[in-house]
Structure formats: C-alpha cells, structure tokens
Amino acid sequence: MRENISIGLLGLGVVGAGVAQIIENHREKLIHQLGSEVNVKSVLVRDPEKIRNIDKEQTHITTNPDDILKDPEIDVIVEVMGGVEEARQYILQAFSAKKHVVTANKDLVALHGPELQEIASLNKCDFYYEASVAGGIPILRGITGGLSADHIQQVMGIVNGTTNYILTKMDNEGVSYEDALMEAKDLGFAEADPTADVEGLDAARKMAILGRLAFSTNVDLEEVEVSGIKNLELADLEYGNTLGYTMKLIGSAKCKDQKVEVNVQPTLLSKNHPLADVKNEYNAVYVYGEAVGETMFYGPGAGGLPTATAIMSDVVEVIKHIHLGVNGTQVTEPRFKKELMKADQRFGQYYLRLHVKDEVGVFSAVSSLFNELNISFKRILQNPIKKHEVAEIVLVTHQTSLENFNKSLNKLKDLNVVLDVKSYYKVEGDVTSEMARTTETL
Ligand SMILES: NC(=O)C1=CN([C@@H]2O[C@H](COP(=O)(O)OP(=O)(O)OC[C@H]3O[C@@H](n4cnc5c(N)ncnc54)[C@H](OP(=O)(O)O)[C@@H]3O)[C@@H](O)[C@H]2O)C=CC1
Ligand SMILES: N[C@@H](CC=O)C(=O)O
C-alpha cells in the first residue's frame, strides 16, 4: 500500500480551491478510508501573484504545466481550469505519463469524452468526471453504478445551477434578470463566460453526457436541441404562474426502441411536478428505469465545495484502484446504433402566447385551426392588452405530437387575424415519467 498519493491540480479557482480545502480539512477521513495520505503537491494557475488560501510551504504554485505533468511523483491530475483545447492537451500528456485524470470540465467531456476515455484505457489510466454534471449530486455514479443493470428510458432534470438561480430570483423575488445573473457570478455558480449557462449550452453538454451514460450509446453534442433563458419575457413567467406553472430550464433525454431524443429548453412545469420546487442553484435529476421505476437525485448543482465533493469521490475511486492495481476501465462499444426520434414520435403539451387583432371572430378562427389539427386546449386565457386593437391569447394544449404543434405554428403565422406568435414553450404536467403520463392522459 502506498503511504502517500500526490495530486496535481490544474486550476485553483472556485472548484480547485474547494478541492484543496476538502483535502486539507478531511485529511483524517481520507487516511482512514484509503490507508494513504493525500496531498496537493503542485497547482497550475495563470496568475502566480494572486492571493490564495493555500499553504505555499506544502504546495508548489506554478504557471508551467510541465512542473505537474512531468513530475513522476504525481499520480493523479485534477483538471479544474476549464476551456477545451488546452485542457485536452494537458490530459493527453497526463495519460502518456500514465497519470490518472479527474475533471469537472463538461465542455471537454461533452466534446471529447469518448476519445479521452479510450486513450485513458489504452494507457491503463482512470478517467472520471462525476463533477461535470449536476455539481455535488452523484448522478453519474447513480446511473453507471446504482442503475447499471437497468434499461434507463428517460432522464429529465434541472442541470444548470446558474439559470435555476436566475429563474428562482426572477419568479420568487422579482429580481431582474441582469441582477440575478450578477449574483450567480459573484457566488461562483456561473461559468467564466456565462453565455453558455444562459443560452442552455452548459445544460446541453451535461445532457449529452447523461444521455451517453444512461442509454449506453453515443450522443453527440450537436444532436442536443438547445434553447436557453436569455430571451424569456416576464409576461410568460407571470401567465405561467396564473395557470399554475413554474418556468424552469429543463434537460430531457429519452430512449425508446433505440430512438433517442435529447434537448434543453425552458419549460413550464406544473407547480405539483417534483422538479418545480427545486430552487436557486440546486439541481435535480429524475431517472426512469424499466426495472427500478422512478428515481430522483437532488442537491447543489454548482459552487466550490459541492463540486469539489464530486471530484473527491472520483479521486478516492482512483486511489482505491491504485492500491488494487486495477486502473483503466475497459471501454465498451455503444450498445446499439441509435436513431434520432422524429417530430411525429415526440409528444408533449405546449403553451402558446399570441397577439391577435382585437375583433369579433378571432378566437373561433384560432380554435378552428387547432381543431383541424386535432389539437385540443387544456387552458385558455384571453386578454386585451394595452396597445390599440391588439388582444392577447394564451393557451395550453393537451398532448400532441411535435410535428402537429409545428404545423399549427406555421398555419397561425398565415392566419390574417394573428399579428404575432409571441412565445411558445413545452409544458409538463404533474408527473414526470412518460409511462405515468400515458396513464394520466388515459
Ligand atoms: N464553478 C462551479 O460551480 C462549477 C464549475 N465546473 C467546472 O469546473 C472547471 C473550473 O471552474 P471554476 O473553478 O468555476 O473556474 P475558475 O475560473 O474559478 O477557475 C479557473 C482556474 O484555472 C486557472 N486557469 C484557467 N485557465 C488556465 C490556463 N490556461 N493556464 C493555467 N491556469 C489556468 C485559473 O487561474 P487563475 O486563478 O490564475 O486565474 C483559475 O485558478 C470548469 O471546467 C467549470 O466548467 C463544474 C461544476 C461546477
Ligand atoms: N455554471 C454551471 C456550474 C456547474 O456545472 C452551473 O451553473 O450549473
């Protein structure tokens, strides 16, 4: 048994500092669990002059990656610097030097995860990335460990802390979008460039990773349909509230008969839906497995210490493997060759807000258009708005195919009484699973 395991940290920001703090504060627990002392030997940073809460006697701070990647005493690299290409190059160098790698970098894993996993395996190295999805929630191990023997059919969740924080503050406290985003940045939840958070790309990266692991098939980032929260209007949050819904940025991945659909979109959730109560930076991921049924994982989705906890769970796994001499998991081929689900195979309820002419007969023109497509309404609100001769119609449909709903949008644009299709969003009812939903609809 090795008495000492040395770690090299690439990055000492929000997450890196959390990792150093846990290693320092939980030293005894780690020794008890692993039989070895764990220490952070060196840390790579951009700015060596920054004041940092780390013992410089114990830990060497450097701007030269070779100090870490070429140090034979370092066994495990923890990559928490972010970015894609530079991080990928350092990780490849680490594998060549037979070092194990743990990362929180979902941008990198979503784009290059399968390639890196394969190279790790060829080098008999471990490559883990628990922290890349849903911060402190052990969701990847939940899927690849706890539910590994099940056929997972659906994964649905709130997987971005920043947007959930913004939506909670806007909805519950009336804070403006800009102020809420600023708070999320100050609290260390947002990415260095928060565009990826608010445009849904961060959640899309996480959903690609979740889809791959849940369905044991390849899911490419470009196959994930994405829309973010940047263009949300307060009016839709307010109408949502009136109708009994809460707006959330929801990631969804479904797999049926080897057909897969993965998307991220603002969604109006019934206030009774289990994800509707997930607030602030908290995340929750609902997983439906054929054998297990419904499961849900909940916890902090962003922030230094929660994310560092997930990283340390990977580090502990790596060190256990070092002691057993079993590093480098075998890579398995995708279990099946998937197809993407087509619009006529995807079903849902939809919220729609229209600006129409404020005149007699408009509502019946709109309803007959939906009637022709066999789309019925669950809820309707009709409001004259302040602008002269303009009225607003807000409706929620019953279940229909995406193909059918798209047809209704095209036809509405051609209807002369419709002035503007202001917004439309997916709606989720009280239950989470497709299976439970089918029963509810019947
Ligand atoms: N923050 C969070 O809640 C979560 C973050 N993540 C992921 O974890 C990773 C780190 O995030 P976070 O800690 O928030 O990021 P920060 O921006 O807080 O920290 C980044 C760190 O990496 C260093 N760094 C960045 N680029 C380079 C470079 N080219 N060369 C050397 N050092 C570099 C920075 O150095 P310096 O200090 O000198 O600027 C800094 O110490 C990202 O991949 C992020 O997506 C994952 C889950 C949650
Ligand atoms: N910016 C991300 C950080 C964690 O992955 C988020 O807000 O979820």
Q: Can you walk through the features of this model?
A:
The radius of gyration is 24 Å and the shape is elongated. Mean pLDDT is 94; it is low at 435-442. The chain starts with a strand and ends with a helix. The protein has 442 residues and is α/β, with parallel strands linked by helices. The chain folds into three domains: 4-135 and 305-324, 3-Layer(aba) Sandwich (Rossmann fold), CATH 3.40.50.720; 139-299, Dihydrodipicolinate Reductase, domain 2 (2-Layer Sandwich), CATH 3.30.360.10; 343-441, Alpha-Beta Plaits (2-Layer Sandwich). 43% of the residues are buried. The chain has helices spanning 14-25, 27-34, 66-69, 85-96, 106-122, 139-146, 161-173, 177-186, 195-198, 201-215, 234-243, 304-324, 362-372, 402-414, 434-441, and strands at 4-10, 37-44, 60-62, 74-79, 100-103, 127-128, 152-158, 225-226, 245-256, 259-270, 282-289, 293-300, 339-340, 347-357, 377-384, 390-397, 400-401, 418-428. The site of NADPH dihydro-nicotinamide-adenine-dinucleotide phosphate (NDP) has 28 residues, from helix 1. Its EC number is 1.1.1.3. It catalyses: L-homoserine + NADP(+) = L-aspartate 4-semialdehyde + NADPH + H(+).
